[in-house]
Amino acid sequence: MKVMVVGSGGREHAIIKKLKENKTIDTIYALPGNGGIAADACCVAIGAKDIDAQVKFAVENGIDFAVVAPDDPLVLGAVDALEAAGIRCFGPRANAAIIEGSKVFSKNLMKKYGIPTAAYEVFEDAESALSYLETAPIPTVVKADGLALGKGAIVAMTREEAIDAVRSMMEDKIFGDSGSRVVIEEFLEGPEVSVLSFTDGKTVIPMVSSMDHKRAHDNDEGLNTGGMGTIAPNPYYTPEMADRCMQEIFLPTIEAMQKEGRPFKGCLYFGLMLTKDGPKVIEYNCRFGDPETQVVLPLLESDLFEIMQAVAEERLTAEDVKFSDGSACCVILASDGYPQKYASGFEITVDEGIDGEVYIAGAKLADGKLLSAGGRVLGVTATADSLPQAIERAYAAVPHVRFENAYYRKDIGQRALKAL
Ligand code: AMP
Ligand code: GLY
């Protein structure tokens, strides 16, 4: 079988490495992939948002199955277009991907179906948003309605920060049309948990839970990033909490999407906050998280391609999805300066026999050398029986991967250890 994976990050590398375990797959294409992914798949220079070219490639090359991993093509309708051309897909259609593509949609969905989330107001113009902020409780959170490269949520600790956020989104249009509408919501507190799930639109099977580390520096200081590391499982997410989330959040969400005529098929990501009033949804993502995927998939014992086909054919059952009892830790190596200015183009070397998986996110091949080419360059993941061991192994593996301006957090997993 021929499978194509749309996307180019560490998440896609982790998906591809897992798919390679399936013996019925002959060839995996990555569109566009990256210099590191090239070691595990045939990279084709077609961008993740170039849906017409993806469909053409799939048809001309007899692709049997497509995995669309990033949010942009999903929201733009890549799955709809591929399916219309007769290609089976893993990923939601555009009418379901809107659960990530529009915060206004997802907040209204949660309100309509009684799914716990932060209280909120929607604003269509800067004037009314600013006037609301004059008396709004502070801290507060300002969110652009549309996709914004993961940077669309601003937690404002002061009234001035909230006003600045509204001005930059609605007047200066820093996120373009994504900021034409904003959600201003209640500030919640508590441990955050990421739960990725497989769903075929009717059945939802949560994967092992995880914890992201979004800030650039140790002790959760510095700017928000795409994620500097992850651990799984998340110790705050107890079996009791998992049951509660299933009843109060996961099942109601799947049912709500079905009732709205927008059945969600693919990976639905629940970003949760465990507040003192119970678990609440911070955000939905219509895809695998990055770098959550780099700790979740290494713990998956079942065959990923079989699960993806079961999802596509709407016959998913709990028996299809088995995770190990172990733990995993992923440390992201970024270019120093990320998420702001950074230099790239440095050669990446990985020692042979390294005790861990290396997932390449931002790298290109030039004259047979792998060069850094992005903010987040790669992730180093280790698995072990316990979380402390997984963390130790991941950090023992990190020095075996080198490039000139590598920067990484030294405390991935420390917050989780405090919960144990
Ligand atoms: P999002 O882009 O929605 O994932 O938000 C990014 C980050 O902002 C989340 O991971 C949270 O840490 C924080 N955040 C988002 N919404 C809230 C909220 N209502 N209360 C507190 N923190 C929030
Ligand atoms: N790590 C968070 C995300 O993938 O959106």
Bound molecules: adenosine monophosphate, glycine
Strand content: 25-35%
Major pleated sheet: 6 strands, antiparallel
Which class best fits the helix and strand makeup?
alpha+beta
Rg over CA atoms, rounded to whole Å, is 21 Å
Alpha carbon gap, first and last residue: 44 Å
Number of strands: 25
Helix content: 25-40%
Number of helices: 13
Shape by Cα distribution: globular
How would you describe this protein?
The chain has 420 residues and is an alpha+beta fold. It has helices at residues 10-19, 51-60, 71-76, 78-84, 94-101, 103-113, 126-133, 159-171, 239-259, 293-296, 304-312, 387-397, 414-419; strands spanning 2-7, 27-32, 42-43, 65-68, 88-90, 120-123, 140-144, 153-156, 182-186, 192-200, 204-206, 211-212, 215-217, 221-224, 229-232, 265-275, 278-285, 327-335, 349-350, 357-360, 363-366, 369-372, 376-384, 401-402, 406-407. Strands 12, 15, 18, 20, 23 and 25 form a six-stranded antiparallel beta sheet that branches. Strands 3-2-1-4-5 form a five-stranded parallel beta sheet, sandwiched between helices. Strand 13 (215-217) and strand 14 (221-224) form a beta hairpin. The site of glycine has 7 residues, from loops.
Quick summary:
With 420 residues, this protein is α+β, with helices and mostly antiparallel strands.
